From TrEMBL:
Coiled-coil residue spans: none
Name of the protein: Multi-component regulatory system-10, containing roadblock/LC7 domain
Lineage: Bacteria, Bacillati, Actinomycetota, Actinomycetes, Kitasatosporales
Keywords: Membrane, Transmembrane, Transmembrane helix
Domain of life: Bacteria
Record-linked Pfam families: Robl_LC7
Domain Roadblock/LAMTOR2 span(s) in chain numbering: 9-100
Organism of this sequence: Streptomyces griseoaurantiacus M045
Transmembrane portions of the chain: 83-102
Amino acid sequence: MISQRANFDWMLKDLADGVPGVQQIVVLSADGLRIARHGGDPDTADRVAAACAGLQSLAGAVAGEIHVSDGRMRMVIIEVDGGYFYLMAAGANAYLAVLSDMRTEPGMMSTRMRDLVLRIGSHLTSPPRRDGQTV
C-alpha cells in the first residue's frame, strides 16, 4: 500500500509541475472520499472530494438528457473568479479533480488530465462500498 501511495504522489506531482497555476489535485471515490491529494491541506481536499460527489452526479443527470449520450460524466470545467475547477472521470468509481488559478490554460489542463487518466486509469479506481465497507 505504501508503494501505491508513493506512486500517486509522484503522478499527481508530475501533473502539478507540468501545468502552471495548479493549486490542488484530489483523487476521489464516486461517493466523495479522498483517495489521494497533492497540494493544499487535507481538510480542503476532503471538502473538495465531498463536493465532487454531488457534482459528478449532477453532471451525469444532465448528460442523460443528451440523446446521443450514454449518460456518463467525462469532464466538468467550472470557471470562477480567480481560477478554474476541473473534474474528470478516472477509472471505475474514481475521479480526478484539480483546482487552479487563472494562469492555467483549460485546454492544456484537460489534455494533461486525460493523458494521466489514460496512463494510470486502472490504478485510479475505488472498489464499491456497502455500509461503509469495501465489498
